[in-house]
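Reopening this ticket.

The earlier resolution said the output was attached, but the attachment link was broken on my side. Pasting everything inline this time so it's all in one place.
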Amino acid sequence: MTQLVERLRGVGRGEGERVSGPALFVCRHHVFGVGTFAVDAVLAGDALVAAAGESGEPAGVLIGTISSCHGALNVLRIGAAGGGRRR
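Inline output:
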């Protein structure tokens, strides 16, 4: 996941976007049919998104959910408020 973030940033090529992460939410099944992820992962993900958006400039955060059988990744895009104008 860290290598994917580096690729998205376009490190060394002068391209890409400001991308943070990854914020990973690992699902554990504690009883049949009930999957959960840790509160500390939610808090860490929230802090990562807040830090990425702190400047008000457009940014992305790689977010992932992972279980024992599958996973999904996507980039949460954070845009400047007001169509590019900072508020």
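Reporter confirms the inline version is readable. The longest strand covers residues 19-26. The helical segments are 2-9, 39-53.
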